[in-house]
Specification:
Layout: H1 3-6, E1 13-17, E2 20-24, E3 28-30, H2 31-37, E4 45-51, E5 54-59, E6 64-66, E7 72-77
Parallel strand pairs: 1-7
Antiparallel strand pairs: 1-2, 3-6, 4-5, 4-7
């Protein structure tokens, strides 16, 4: 079986979350799955796509994202912060 058949005719895609590069075979994934890929808990973080230095779109955990090559995302902490 060729590599193209395994990936539906598309090669793996590389993208960035918080400046760290990741490469995946599946180009459609939920925001929660991408956060888990980085080791972050989706219950305490949101994922947002960057355009330039600005947040272009903030995703809900269940939102399906079409990952494009070199796309840039950031995690946003949404959990509680302890009061000192």
């Amino acid at each position: 079986m060729s590599n193209e058949n395994v990936h539906g005719g598309q090669p793996p895609v590389t993208f960035f979350i918080d400046g760290v590069s990741f490469t995946v075979d599946e180009r459609r994934q939920s925001a929660a799955a991408l956060l888990q890929l980085t080791g972050l808990d989706p219950a305490d973080h949101d994922l947002a796509r960057l355009q330039g230095h600005d947040v272009q779109h903030r995703f809900a955990d269940a939102d399906e994202i079409q990952i494009t090559p070199d796309a840039r995302y950031v995690s946003i902490f949404t959990g509680s912060t302890p009061v000192a």
